[in-house]
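#dry-run=false #mode=assembly
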Amino acid sequence: MRIPIAHPSHFNFPEILRFLSRSTRECLHYVEDGHLFKMIAVQEVPLLMDIRYKEGAAYLDVDVIKPDPVPMEWAAPALAAAAAPVQALLTRWLHLDADLRPFYTFAATDPVLAPLVRDYHGLRLVGVPDLFESITWTVMGQQINLAFAYTTRKRFIETLGYSVEHGGRTHYLYPKPAVVAAAQPELLREMQFSRGKITYMQNLAQQIVQGQFSAALVDDAPDFETAKAALVALKGIGNWSANYVLMKYARYPQSLPLEDAGLHQALRRYHHLPGKPALDEVKRLTAHWGPHAAYATFYCWHSLFEV
DNA sequence: GCCCAGGCACCGA
DNA sequence: TCGGTGCATGGG
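#status=ok
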């Protein structure tokens, strides 16, 4: 399959792979020799994507593999029907339909962002295409260091997710709401989630199972504020988490996770502040980002992985 | 040992 | 409305 990329001159696959390699505890995708592997579910059928990119091309090359031990005559129809969903998911995950020119024009005039867009030119804002995954991930990441957050996330996925062995690796699908809702809280506690986080995650899972919360509340929201209100109404979701989800899942360009420790660290470094900036100072330093806030934040985060 | 982590809800004034 | 506090635990 070939998945089209908008504005390929502003597409940097190696930099995207570098971003995707940021944690050794990642298990929802793997990067190896320029290949990106990720398992997805298309109408309940697990499919493994093998994604490559040839420098200069206007498309990604994707092989879709049926990793289960299923006879080929059964697998073929599933693969044939997968083309459109695979394209939609990859486009959404890697922001293949993005036009970075407005952001780059803006960033060129900003002393903080200008060096970042020069160094990471073509880096797309890698998203989280699943709402349940993006919300639970923000809960997991609250108030603890990122390495520990990834450790708990890995336990969560390995214990409650669906897995398939293929090519010497174990590929996982993120746990479904019904499985999380039905899990014993003690099991989640063993993964070292705090009791509060367990409550938040299971409440969300249960609300999704019972139909009280659904992606439609975010997807069909008429504007940013409405979508944000639907998220903040959930226990455990505050301004930071809502903005993270609006940035990585819903892809609102103005999303700005103001309370983010990584953002504070970047602002401190690039504005040469003596200490961690106060919230009103963060507001002041980012106010002009406007509709570029999501990309500006993402490039700031990416720059912290340099070192 | 101490302080900070990709925060948030809850509490009392 | 607002500041203080507990959460859980790893890493610097």
